[in-house]
Amino acid sequence: MKPAPLRLKKDQERRLLAGHAWIYSNEVDTAATPLKGLEPGQAVEVFSQRGRWLGHGYVNPHSLLCARLLSRDRAHPLGPSLLVQRIQAALGLRRRIYPQPFYRLVHGEGDGLPGLVVDRYGDLLAVQVTTAGMQRALPAVIAALEQVVRPQRIVLRNDTAVRAQEGLEQGIDWVLGEDPGEIELTEDGLRFGVAPGSGQKTGWFFDQADNRLALKRLAAPRRALDVCCYLGAWGLRAADAGAESVTFVDSSAAALDQVRANAARNGLEQRIQCRQGDAFETLRALREEEARFDLVILDPPAFIKRRKDEAEGTRAYQRLNRLGLALLEPGGMLVTASCSFHMERNVFLHTVQGAAQRTGHTLQLLLAGTQGPDHPVHPAIVETAYLKTFFLRSLPV
Questions:
Q1: Which of 165, 202, 321, 340 lies at a CB distance of 3.0 to 4.6 Å from 304, suitable for a disulfide?
Q2: Is Methyltransferase tagged as a keyword (predicted)?
Q3: What confidence tens digit (pLDDT) does each residue in 269-315 have?
């Protein structure tokens, strides 16, 4: 089917010409090209008001973010050739960087494939499709992945809530091979059991891998606390670096069972203890118990999922950091993270500093980390730079 034209209002092409890939419904000249006449996921060619061709993309007339560009080459629309080319380029980058095949293979706009995320676990690929346009192209996506990567298993992890905003159904589907259950992943010598078919997101958080490696260089803890620990990647890294005791906190009993299994897998089971419960309530309980730690790790889920949640989410980040800092020994290290792209880096740092003032800590910022290179940032799309991780030392009294 020939792509439909999508014409923009006057001067609305400026952001696209600067490299951005998103088009909002209020930027479209609906008198010239009515959105109501288009189907979700339909291919479009985008034009300026004066008729300048801007790129190939796809549309969803039911979404405020109604279109995304994929190609600025008129001879190269979304199709098998483009998908193979982009996935080959993504794989080439990862192969240069990572000695083992555990990484994010495709990171949406950062790899020129908006609406597509692919995490790699050896010969298993976990695929997330978050837009109607990429959903419509899914058969070609799977074919391209099989051609370029040659995996043994592919699971569609389309159980993310963001699909509802695009009018897409949610679910998990194995389109190649069968669910192997738990598989083993290695990260800098540590071994972890993960379940790509059932774990959070796609089973593992590759975006923090480089920051976890930095923990070995910057912290030498005796007593560590890992809050919102999931499978224990941060805390077990601290134990491997020499921590005598690591306390893991998570609301999920299943996650804590996996922490124990991962600790045993690495011979660290004697150094850990687990506490199930809400992060805020558990931190308050630890404060009442007068517990103290010289390393506190706070890596919560996003508190700000939408712009309208910004004020409430900012308060949640300050409260979490205030409770964490209340347990930190002078001279200790706070590792705190936000994966909310709506929270700007400087705002997050200011929020943590406010928490430090409330708890009487004077902080030094030692390292400001971001997502690893398998989560590339599109320079023109600030929303792709979502992860902020700060390593902060509390100055001794």
A1: 340
A2: yes
A3: 999 999 999 999 999 999 999 999 999 999 999 998 888 889 999 99
